[in-house]
Structure to design on (493 residues):
């Protein structure tokens, strides 16, 4: 029988060695008293949007920091993360002509799985940094010792972050009509600025022309989302066009941004798992109220492990990272365990192989899922299979490898008659120098100029926007990198 703590009976990997078990119990008991961060209706709405994405009727953009840090819970950092997601989603909406489901790795992406238990510097070995929810990145024994108080700080900062996202959304900041205000500083010099501005102008014209199909569809969907189902179902409800846009935007202008994080720390996740009681549609089901879309990473996706056991029983849509180690049969068993009722939108599979391995591994997994008729949403994470160390030991990823894995992913799904319904990126709106390449040609020597990530290298705002433009080109059957960009700008810098 499943219950929010049934995972406790199974092998738990990636669990930090807390020196004081009683202090951990006190912290989780405190968490259990605190209110939910998200609601069942938001969670259910996301699930139905993910079902649409699996069917090719929407597209999922999932992205954010590898490891969100407590220190980044500031107005500037939160807005810049939102801005880059919004800019990318505008490009995708315009190019793919389907509504974009935006899910931030935000408001709780604080716990990290690590390949190495410890880290050695200058002959001193200390426990690895495991994310701000667990310990501190500073290289000292005190900082690296897991501290259960951090679970409460993480909950609070997730809640502050979400509160600010909601406030911005409610006040119209995320509306398409506000696109002018999403620009980040890099846009002033970006070789892609003109491409982006062109899209913003087209969307604006589409509003004016009354036939912005994708735009109007998204806006009327927003109206439905906010409880206008009955009105929207009336035959005289304007489904598309200017009337729909005005009608919907006037009443419910806000465009939603959902949250996700890796459900790694099961004491935290289960403390925030409660039986739904308010919403009659959800009553009696167990929800993880800390985020809309919890996912399990590749290192904890063992069928017989604690993490999959936890995920199995919650009513949220869930995602699992799948990589080169997983066989077709292994994946079939995983799908059966996580979605035996084959509910559309319930299960998202995020594949992450690396540009040189995707050809070899993905087709068998697509076949396996199809064999059992599992309605999964396929998403490509082109980041985690393409991490490499430079000669000087810096963790980086090459823009071209990321692009290449994406390009192959679209092609392989197309060849197999399957749908790649979304993308998953590690990115930031800040002008960091963590990934190599992109229109400005950031090279290895430039990496240490602004390398801030505490774990994995992220695309900076400019590289992320360029990636969105490239996805559109790929989907339109054009070369991913714009031939319209002068060669000196492609490699310069
Ligand atoms: C991550 O998304 O940061 C991560 C650790 O991914 P994966 O489990 O795919 O390695
Ligand atoms: Co990562």
């Amino acid at each position: 029988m499943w219950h929010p703590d049934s995972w406790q009976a199974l092998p738990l990997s990636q669990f930090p060695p807390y020196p004081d078990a009683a202090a951990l119990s006190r912290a989780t008991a405190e968490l259990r008293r605190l209110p939910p961060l998200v609601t069942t209706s938001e969670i259910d709405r996301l699930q139905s949007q993910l079902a649409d994405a699996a069917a090719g009727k929407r597209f999922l953009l999932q992205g954010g920091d590898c490891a969100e840090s407590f220190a980044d819970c500031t107005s500037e950092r939160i807005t810049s993360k939102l801005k880059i997601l919004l800019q990318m989603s505008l490009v995708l909406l315009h190019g793919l002509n389907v509504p974009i489901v935006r899910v931030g790795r935000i408001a709780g992406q604080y716990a990290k799985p690590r390949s190495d238990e410890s880290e050695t510097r200058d002959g001193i070995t200390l426990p690895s940094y495991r994310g701000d929810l667990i310990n501190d990145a500073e290289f000292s024994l005190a900082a690296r010792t897991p501290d259960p108080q951090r679970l409460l700080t993480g909950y609070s900062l997730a809640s502050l972050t979400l509160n600010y996202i909601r406030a911005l959304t409610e006040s119209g900041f995320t509306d398409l009509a506000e696109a002018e205000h999403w620009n980040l500083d890099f846009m002033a010099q970006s070789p892609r600025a003109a491409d982006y501005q062109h899209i913003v102008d087209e969307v604006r014209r589409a509003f004016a022309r009354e036939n912005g199909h994708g735009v109007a569809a998204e806006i009327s969907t927003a109206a439905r989302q906010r409880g206008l189902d009955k009105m929207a179902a009336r035959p005289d409800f304007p489904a598309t066009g200017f009337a729909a846009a005005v009608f919907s935007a006037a009443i419910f202008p806000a465009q939603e941004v959902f949250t996700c994080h890796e459900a790694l720390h099961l004491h935290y996740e289960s403390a925030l798992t409660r039986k739904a009681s308010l919403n009659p549609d959800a009553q009696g089901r167990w929800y993880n109220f800390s985020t809309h879309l919890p996912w399990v990473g590749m290192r904890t996706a063992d069928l017989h492990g604690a993490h999959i056991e936890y995920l199995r029983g919650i009513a949220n849509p869930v995602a699992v990272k799948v990589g080169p180690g997983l066989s077709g049969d292994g994946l079939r068993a995983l799908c059966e365990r996580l979605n035996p009722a084959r509910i559309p939108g319930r299960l998202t599979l995020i594949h992450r192989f690396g540009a040189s391995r995707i050809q070899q591994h993905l087709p068998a997994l697509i076949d396996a899922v199809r064999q059992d008729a599992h309605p999964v949403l396929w998403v490509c994470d082109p980041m985690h299979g393409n991490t490499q160390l430079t000669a000087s030991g810096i963790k980086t990823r090459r823009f071209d490898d990321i692009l290449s894995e994406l390009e192959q992913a679209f092609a392989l799904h197309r060849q197999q008659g399957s749908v790649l319904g979304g993308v998953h990126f590690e990115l930031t709106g800040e002008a960091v120098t963590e990934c190599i390449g992109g229109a400005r040609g950031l090279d290895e020597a430039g990496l240490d100029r602004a390398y801030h990530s505490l774990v994995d290298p992220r695309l900076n705002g400019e590289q992320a926007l360029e990636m969105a433009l490239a996805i559109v080109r790929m989907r339109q059957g054009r070369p991913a990198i714009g031939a319209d960009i002068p060669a000196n700008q492609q490699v310069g810098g």
